[in-house]
Amino acid sequence: MPKSVSSIDDNTFNEEIGSATTPVLVDFWAEWCGPCKMIAPILEEIAGDHSETLKILKLNVDDAPSTAQRFGVMSIPTLILFKDGEEAKRIIGAKPKGAILDDITPFL
After folding, report:
1. What is the pLDDT of residue 59?
2. More exposed terminus of the chain, fewer Cβ within 10 Å: N or C?
């Protein structure tokens, strides 16, 4: 099965967001973050279920601090949905699949 969620960094962020033809959900996370690890499989599921209408990318805040700072990410996990290159929705903290879908579905 192909990997549904890809990783980005400071160097690839603008290109990935700017060239996207669908909304992009960026997961700001870190290896040491327990709640981040809890939502990772949920995001994989959502990516698989909505591959036609949504792209999900992961950005490790330890490896890409300037992008995290640029978007004012103060706590993780933070999910930011970008539509047409602009922030459309921000979700802070771990949530169950249904709650994440409730938050992002209006933008898909």
Report:
1. 97
2. N
The ranges assigned to domains in the chain are: 6-107
Local mean pLDDT, 10-residue blocks, the chain (108 residues): 77 92 95 96 94 94 95 96 95 96 94
> For residue 26, what are the CA distances in angstroms to 20, 44, 86?
12, 12, 12
Is the pTM higher than 0.90? The answer reads: yes
DSSP label at residue 75: S
Q: Is 15 helix (H, G, I), strand (E, B) or coil?
A: helix
Distance CA 87, CA 81 (A): 6
User: Tokens representing 103?
Assistant: 């938050």
Instruction: Report the alpha-carbon distance of residue 21 to residue 8 in Å, rounded.
Output: 17
Q: How far apart are CA 100 and CA 108, in angstroms?
A: 12
Tell me the catalytic residues: 33, 36
